[in-house]
Amino acid sequence: MKARQSLGSRLAEGVSGGLLRVFLIVVGLFWLVPTIGLLLSSLRAPEDIAASGWWKVFTEPSQITFDSYRKLLENEDITSSLLNTVWITVPATLLVVIIGSLAGYAFAWMEFPGRDWWFLGVVGLLVVPVQVALIPIAELFGKIGVFGSVLGVVLFHVGFGLPFAVFLLRNFFAEIPRELLEAARLDGAGELRLFFRVVMPLGAPAIAALGIFQFLWVWNDLLVALIFSDSGSQPITVALQTQVRQFGNNIDVLAPGAFISMVVPLAVFFAFQRQFVSGVMAGAVK
Amino acid sequence: MTSVSAAGGDKPPAAPKSRKSVTGTRRTVAALFLLPALVLLGALVVYPIGYSVVRSFYDQSGDGFAGIDNYKSLFTDEGIRTALKNNIIWVVFAPTIATALGLIFAVLTERVRWGTAFKLVVFMPMAISMLAAGIIFRLVYDQDPDKGVANAVWVGVHDTFSQASAFPKAHPGRESPLKPAGGGAFITTSPVRTGEAVSLPLVGVAPDLMPDGAKAAVAPKPEPDKVTGTTWQDFTRGKGVGTLNTVDPAELGYAGMKVEAVKDGKVVASATAADDGTFTLPAAADGAQLRLPASNFKEPYNGLDWLGPSLVTPSIIGSYIWMWAGFAMVLIAAGLASVPRELLEAARVDGASEWQVFRRVTVPLLAPVLAVVAVTLMINVLKIFDLVFIIAPGSSQDDANVLALELYRKGFSEDQPGIASAISVFLLLLVIPVMWFNVRRLRREVRR
């Protein structure tokens, strides 16, 4: 086919192919430049930032300095809030994965009355906006004394992470071949053994996708932590948010802080692209 | 053991009809597996829904029944109305633009070898927080074209297409034949005649702001049936004005200065000064006054006020699209991968152009995916909070307001939990069609 194309159409194809490449490169730059701007801004002194644009470092590379990062890591508010982010994100992710797996398995393979209705009820909760729960949960947490604590933030994230977890895992577990489960059962496996030795390993791809999705969701959250944490339990997003009102004056905290807060999600993203994509695709209803 | 053989025995394993208890579980075991999830969902998701609905009918303190007052304020409260208007703008534009870009990127990247790298770059912003994206775009949208990359690019493009006005702060010197004409323009005190040579001297342009092409000014030479003249900077650094209102050596012409001949308030002729400051007007200018219009003296163009009241919402939507176009692209690319190639090839063999193939084959086949992407983004956009909260500066945050932000303000800084609850119930009502759709789709699958 290719060989029989006329010279003209091949020429046109070549030109449009060239245009296409140029277009995609321009768009790609469009997408990269904002992040590069943040990175280079974080590597300049505040006086330089106030005087000129970040692209100045291309002509004056001597402006690059790690001072802002050094100061940031000596700033105890920032370091403790980074730790808080970890203390919030890790439990919130593990709990959602474990509790979601238990329920997903029950919905997929156990018999009990009204099973499908219960499951549909959970599916209905998928799109409930977190905003609906902010005020009621703030009052509830106030009463039981977890308002302002890491525990409160974790609980909220677990609650709103569960519908998606149950939905995703139940659908994945349901695809496990029945024979595998029966064989394990015939070998005398009990309920827990079956769950931990057969279902969890076979469901690993879905569990990984869910885990990464939930991890990024919680790590990147601002709104929930803004309401349910206090100055001692706030994650990095909230700590940085308090500096935004004086944007120009605090740029030496905001730029490196934002970049540090991005490092972990970006590392996770590049390391687990495939799982992340499948999590995002399954989450298209959330 | 016995229960397993019973369960496995009387149902053929191949039958997909029901996944009936392979495990033959006792109900108590099932309950134990479900209990943590159901308790948490009940306490943290279901109970708050009920509470919010009830709370939305009570007044500020929560003691008195308020009927539908809180819902009325959704449409009367100034802040909420702006938020509602902006949310509509968000829901209409953000998902459609992001989906359209995602579609374009997905289709185009299929044709280049480094498509995967491109996708990675566009998809990457999805992994970062809206807070970080907000900080990124505060930098991008900085008003100063020397600092914000958006205005740097915009001013660059603008100045390429419309010449930057070259003479800010120029003004008549002592005993000048020119006087201010209002609005920043200058006009000759008396009318000009053909055959006459006119001098239009000004002072005050900083040497580094003079146009690069400006040459030494040349004294005007009279020509019959024409009005000729020179407009120049009647001042040289270090030498002062020289002879007042006369072209001295080393004084520079105002290259590119616009000159208009005005008769009875109407422009009858116009010219642009050459590099040496000379200009020539036709006979029609006879008896007119010469004016140097204000456009010559404007301050240099400073770009758009991206985060000002009128542009702030479109600007923030831009940053949202930066974050989420990659999501649309990845989902659509996955859909595209499942489109049968033969179908596209067949259309091409039949002589369809690439555009026709795209329009008539690809897009219709992708319609379900496009719908899922657009609906997902709509739900997402309804709840938009972080980006607006971070990017909109205090001065224009009221103009950028959205429902989720207003809910946060009403509920947590203005102590209006009743109204905040009404907003949250309103948001919930908006997603109920999607909820219903999800449940229906799943019910079919579960029942299979």
TrEMBL record, chain A:
GO biological process: transmembrane transport
Regions that span the bilayer: 20-40, 86-110, 117-138, 144-173, 194-219, 253-272
Annotated protein name in UniProt: Carbohydrate ABC transporter permease
Span of the signal peptide: none
Annotated source species: Streptomyces sp. SID7499
Keyword Transport: yes
Coiled-coil intervals: none
Predominant subcellular localization, coarse grouping: membrane
Taxonomy, superkingdom: Bacteria
Pfam families linked to this entry: BPD_transp_1
The keyword Cell membrane appears for this protein: yes
GO cellular component: plasma membrane
InterPro entries reported in the protein's UniProt record: MetI-like, MetI-like_sf
Cell location: Cell membrane
Membrane protein topology class: Multi-pass membrane protein
